[in-house]
Design goal:
Number of domains of chain B: 2
CATH class of the largest domain in chain B: Alpha Beta
Strand content of chain B: 25-35%
CATH topology of the largest domain in chain B: Rossmann fold
Strand order of the largest sheet of chain A: 3-2-1-4-5
Number of strands of chain B: 11
Radius of gyration of chain A: 13 Å
Structural class of chain B: alpha/beta
Shape of chain B: elongated
Largest interface: A-B, 21 and 23 residues
Oligomer: heterodimer
Number of helices of chain B: 11
Strand order of the largest sheet of chain B: 3-6-7-2-8-1-9-10-11
Shape of chain A: globular
Order of helices and strands of chain B: EHEHEHEEHEEHEHEHEHEHHH
Largest sheet of chain A: 5 strands, mixed
Order of helices and strands of chain A: EEEHEHEH
Largest sheet of chain B: 9 strands, mixed
Distance between the termini of chain B: 10 Å
CATH architecture of the largest domain in chain B: 3-Layer(aba) Sandwich
Helix content of chain B: 25-40%
Number of helices of chain A: 3
CATH architecture of chain A: 2-Layer Sandwich
Distance between the termini of chain A: 40 Å
Radius of gyration of chain B: 22 Å
CATH class of chain A: Alpha Beta
CATH topology of chain A: Nucleotidyltransferase, domain 5
Number of domains of chain A: 1
Strand content of chain A: 15-25%
Chain lengths: 122, 279
């Protein structure tokens, strides 16, 4: 099974990125092979819809689990309709978050925020 | 002739100036482009004779036909589409109705459907045709409503068309001034007012439109907006002195020029000045 996390640098010893849609990379950890793949988020600086694009990267990576501190409404729509489960990350390294998840010690992410996609802006 | 009235912030007197200028002309239109909160009709109390719906195109997906190639997802510059492995999702709030996804789909799985986002009301009040743009609550962009307004104004073909713009200097203001022959910037006598004046001044200059400033709520003493005009050699068209009487008349939905000779003269001479500038 693959687990995806937003991350600021290509290193699992870093903390999970504070943002989902605007994170520079996504780390995808494969629990069977123990391999880590880093996907660059080309939508990190997009004017709008970054969360949707980010969620598309996660879906395309084949991940079944997403560990993130937060997630906007649009991104959550994409992730959940692809049957990816979302867990809330803790303020420890990405590696430790993966370990905690595997030990069943992370909670499901329930508080989906409305997003920062400024409905009033054009 | 199209004359746009702008300001960097709300409450400076755009509507006051627009309504009175339109009223002072012999054959005119008043166009309310402040589609999120139009209020010019409160002064004109027009007899409504036409309502037009404003629709935009939204992608409509035939999930059965979709082969999951993601061509549309990759094409969309606004990231309004996502493919989840089972379904193609459309995010209408983000879509800009460009229609590109329908063109790049190799199997014709995406068509377009109409989405109602607002309306235009057209009415008459004496010699003034009153155009009001209304955007539905919750909609992201009023630009299609402005475009619709301008199309209708074109059909009416009045001599003087006064465009009451939304506040600020965002896309919706640019759309409102796009066809204008002249821009009037209404400014308040405060530091904040001068800052906002500078913003719209930059915008109008960028659009290479001839412009002039009306200093509203004018009083003796330091006026940062007036200082800004003088420093940048900006034409000051006129001053509307602060008065409680104006405030009261205006707040009761009265048109100043219809109430008192003094105001009628003020706005008639302003209009005359602007028309001369354009010609």
């Amino acid at each position: 099974m693959k687990i995806a996390l937003p991350i600021d640098e290509k290193d699992l010893n870093n903390e999970v990125s504070v943002s989902f849609g605007r994170a520079p990379y996504y780390a995808v950890y494969d629990t069977e092979t123990k391999d880590v793949e880093y996907i660059e988020n080309t939508a990190a600086n997009a004017k709008g819809g970054a969360g949707i694009k980010a969620a598309q990267f996660v879906v395309d990576s084949g991940a079944k689990v997403l560990i993130t501190p937060r997630c906007g409404e649009n991104a959550a729509d994409v992730v959940s309709s692809a049957d990816i489960r979302m867990y809330k990350s803790e303020k420890v390294s990405a590696k430790e978050n993966i370990e905690k998840f595997l030990e069943d010690r992370l909670s499901l992410l329930n508080d989906i925020h409305e997003g920062f996609h400024g409905k009033a802006s054009n | 002739m199209k004359i746009a009235v702008l300001s960097g912030k709300g409450g400076t007197g755009k509507t006051l100036v627009s309504v009175n200028l339109a009223y002072s002309a012999e054959n005119s239109s008043y166009i309310d482009c402040d589609v999120e909160e139009p209020n010019g009709f409160l002064y004109f109390k027009p007899k409504k004779n036409k309502t037009k719906k404003i629709n935009v195109k939204m992608p409509f997906v035939d999930q059965e036909k979709c082969i999951g190639c993601r061509k549309c997802v990759n094409f969309c510059n606004f990231n309004a589409l996502a493919y989840t492995g089972k379904r193609l999702l459309v995010f209408e709030d983000i879509c800009h109705s460009c229609g590109g996804c329908t063109l790049v789909c190799p199997v014709g799985a995406i068509s377009e459907k109409d989405k109602d986002i607002g309306k235009i009301e057209i009415g008459e009040s004496g010699n003034v045709s009153v155009f009001t743009g209304i955007l539905n609550i919750g909609e992201a962009s009023g630009i299609p409503v402005i475009k619709g307004l301008m199309r209708e104004v074109e059909k009416e073909n009045k001599d003087i068309n006064i465009i009451d713009c939304p506040p600020g200097s965002a896309c919706i203001v640019m759309e409102s001034i796009n066809d204008a022959d002249y821009c009037i910037l209404v400014a308040e006598p405060s530091i904040f007012g001068a800052h906002n004046l500078e913003m719209v001044y930059e915008l109008v200059t960028l659009f290479k439109k001839p412009l002039g400033v009306i200093l509203n709520k004018y009083s003796e003493g330091i006026n940062p907006s007036e200082i800004f005009c003088n420093e940048n050699n900006i034409n000051i068209l006129g001053k509307i002195y602060y008065s409680e009487e104006i405030g009261n008349l205006n707040s009761e939905g009265n048109i100043l020029a219809a109430e008192k000779e003094e105001y009628k003269k003020l706005f008639s001479s302003l209009l005359e000045k602007i028309v001369k500038e354009v010609e």
